[in-house]
Amino acid sequence: xxxxxxxxxxxxxxxxxxxxxxxxxxxxxxxxxxxxxxxxxxxxxxxxxxxxxxxxxxxxxxxxxxxxxxxxxxxxxxxxxxxxxxxxxxxxxxxxxxxxxxxxxxxxxxxxxxxxxxxxxxxxxxx
Amino acid sequence: xxxxxxxxxxxxxxxxxxxxxxxxxxxxxxxxxxxxxxxxxxxxxxxxxxxxxxxxxxxxxxxxxxxxxxxxxxxxxxxxxxxxxxxxxxxxxxxxxxxxxxxxxxxxxxxxxxxxxxxxxxxxxxxxxxxxxxxxxxxxxxxxxxxxxxxxxxxxxxxxxxxxxxxxxxxxxxxxxxxxxxxxxxxxxxxxxxxxxxxxxxxxxxxxxxxxxxxxxxxxxxxxxxxxxxxxxxxxxxxxxxxxxxxxxxxxxxxxxxxxxxxxxxxxxxxxxxxxxxxxxxxxxxxxxxxxxxxxxxxxxxxxxxxxxxxxxxxxxxxxxxxxxxxxxxxxxxxxxxxxxxxxxxxxxxxxxxxxxxxxxxxxxxxxxxxxxxxxxxxxxxxxxxxxxxxxxxxxxxxxxxxxxxxxxxxxxxxxxxxxxxxxxxxxxxxxxxxxxxxxxxxxxxxxxxxxxxxxxxxxxxxxxxxxxxxxxxxxxxxxxxxxxxxxxxxxxxxxxxxxxxxxxxxxxxxxxxxxxxxxxxxxxxxx
Amino acid sequence: xxxxxxxxxxxxxxxxxxxxxxxxxxxxxxxxxxxxxxxxxxxxxxxxxxxxxxxxxxxxxxxxxxxxxxxxxxxxxxxxxxxxxxxxxxxxxxxxxxxxxxxxxxxxxxxxxxxxxxxxxxxxxxxxxxxxxxxxxxxxxxxxxxxxxxxxxxxxxxxxxxxxxxxxxxxxxxxxxxxxxxxxxxxxxxxxxxxxxxxxxxxxxxxxxxxxxxxxxxxxxxxxxxxxxxxxxxxxxxxxxxxxxxxxxxxxxxxxxxxxxxxxxxxxxxxxxxxxxxxxxxxxxxxxxxxxxxxxxxxxxxxxxxxxxxxxxxxxxxxxxxxxxxxxxxxxxxxxxxxxxxxxxxxxxxxxxxxxxxxxxxxxxxxxxxxxxxxxxxxxxxxxxxxxxxxxxxxxxxxxxxxxxxxxxxxxxxxxxxxxxxxxxxxxxxxxxxxxxxxxxxxxxxxxx
Lengths: 127, 528, 449
What we know:
Chain A has about 130 residues and is of the alpha+beta class. Chain A has helices spanning about 30-35, 80-85, 90, 110, 115-125; strands at about 10, 15-20, 20-25, 40, 50, 55-60, 65-70, 75-80, 100-105.
């Protein structure tokens, strides 16, 4: 699967895409593939703050839990309620399925993250 | 195996047979059926609604209504869907699935023991207290420790109790300390326990032999280290031959050595943790001492410790009149009873009673005194074996594991070549190259009539096959198991899909765990 | 060594196959100084007949033929014979946690039935596969409430079983989880609602009460729930006497119920093994400790059952798990399931009503003796009651024991403010004759009141 070039990525396999000062955050195809069928997503509440590099939730398969690390610091403005009933959306369309939206405290953090090419090089190494 | 051309074919380990289908008990219910009859009331009947007012239950719970024969058939049919030790080898590594002697069940049901109320006066409980006292002394002798509590309800509960003792002792020294070291090969209960005792968990990486890396240990142990939680033999079935050095490194920094006794079946009668530097440990009566696993419990997780930890044991502790020290400790006394028990039992010298006034105690870890019914069974096991039987049991458990290792190591990868004790851990490396994983091989074993080994644990072995035969397997059963494992290895080469889609002989095929977790259905509900 | 299925020749053959000269070779990895070179000092090997004799003697030494008015978290009810017939089937007795669903459907379906029955009885949405017992279950329920609410304080009624409170204190001590004790009303024996209201704050994670409480009194659960919920705290109701649910309204306003299911066909066995269980509202499911069985389908569409939501548990989440519990009380939960199937929807009510009748008669008869005063008459109760005597309990309890009766439990250790108070329990196993005899013995006391 192609990694969208307008997205930025973390070494913990999250992606973020910006719309103004609001970033949408999800997990990469690589991440969903290694986890397998996702059965549950644990997310923060709207209004909570998230910190770059710190965990903000988790995704679960039947036999594994994977922490979610925030690419940026900011305030949660929305959570994807659809994932409560259909966590499989992440498996089906990982790059179209956002988990939380965050108002960035410092929009400059976005550009400091990995771009698609760098991320693809990173996962090539991991494999 | 050789077969004579004229002899009939042997049946091997398994043949298919019919099992009965059976609905949920609720689906079999029909109003008005009864499986009980209350005796006539010998006191005036009260009007419950009037007596209880708002607290009266208006709508009964939707419990099933069946006759006795239906109930017998229901649960008997369900039982036939289970695999069990009584049916064959159950080599679930780290669980010690050994034979559960039936005399244990018989004696645990003796009226005076089974019907004893926990608050009956000690004077009317001397029989059961004798049993507890003798079991305590036997376990102290077996572990080489100084004192014991039988209160914890299971292994993980024992870990909790043991780490509370560690913490209480450190606190008495002025600093509870901050962290517990846990090898990456450890069972998940170890870190979970450390966390609920308020400690942070620091991971200790295993060395190339799967054991404790002494250099890493030396580096990581500091004045904030409360203890190392060590399973010995380890989860890969290897005895830590440097155990005394491990203890020395810890003790030099004031840290303690906790031993997870899950694998005591490799040591009983051959070596004692108290002799090799362990400060505190738990036992699993449902593993080493043959109390039944019962489909997931009950267990019992006694905690034995050195004398300096004795003041911190949970309350109450058992004592004999005129001898405050005897109940939980006094290893010198031994069981004093090597030749026989006599009909009076061993405790005739004084009255046993519970002591609650223990100012340094960590407190209670459960109500009453522990899973007493399991104490009775464990003691019956020890009595049936005696010192010679306990030693032979351990030797046979180790012999069986090594026999399996010798007979399978040409076909299955052995990631650690270190000598095996009571269990052997292979990896699926060679089979995974063909796309067949440990979980698939496990499922295929079911078709050969065996319960699978422990799958994907310990985590330091990628694709682990953790096999613990225990002493309870005959040579014939072991050979059948080996034959099955060898046949599966051939299938992986020739017909891998057969293995990947196993089991093929069970009532239900592989179950959809993803659906179960995504949309949990955790109870039956009536259809409208 | 009757449990070991090997002949000496077979052992030799196996050693040869392994390439070991002797069994000692296999233990060579243990440093010589730590190898035990002597027999363990434990009793010699005993014949089965000797083992049976030893435990029979121990049972007789315990004194078996006493009538008993003891309750207080361990209750003597009749155990239908088929419970032991069924749980001693090797397929239940000698299997383990149903990790391999295809060959453990029996255990899995039975647990699913247990979860359903507990949810039905308690009025909760879901129940787990069991906890160790009622005391540890209550402590785990409080920790669950901490995870749900993100708050770190507990409010606990003084009418919760004192040993349950001690266990909670042990668990809470290292989790920075202070708890406030709330007293009881001296007329009703119920939790003091005004004091409760004052104790519950915006920082309270959970209010823990027991109903019927330690005095046998049924708490006003709707009123307590209103106080807890007004401050955003969860209400945990601990139930030590499960049979009460046959006739007592279930605590539907609770968020979590922690129950001891020993009364459902489990022998007293001097205090264990018993069977705890946690039930809760569905929205708290992810924070529940312990194993859960769920319904699903196999690859051909047939109904089947599996262990599910395991990511909460220690073997996956390790130090972040909801609890460190692993082995639970599965076989005891099976006893409870069979018991509840035997009594069923009508039987559990009838059984509970018999208990209510026995206790009403016992309370009236014993409480009306000269020198005795029945306490907490201002609220309904199930099958336990408290009364004060002019005489200290040690005096009359010895006279009762001379009549082969074990009287009520002395409460002075836990509730000194109640004076010579004792807690009595009358289940369906107590006869009118037992009650009348006990009353006669009590009446023989020197009267002061």
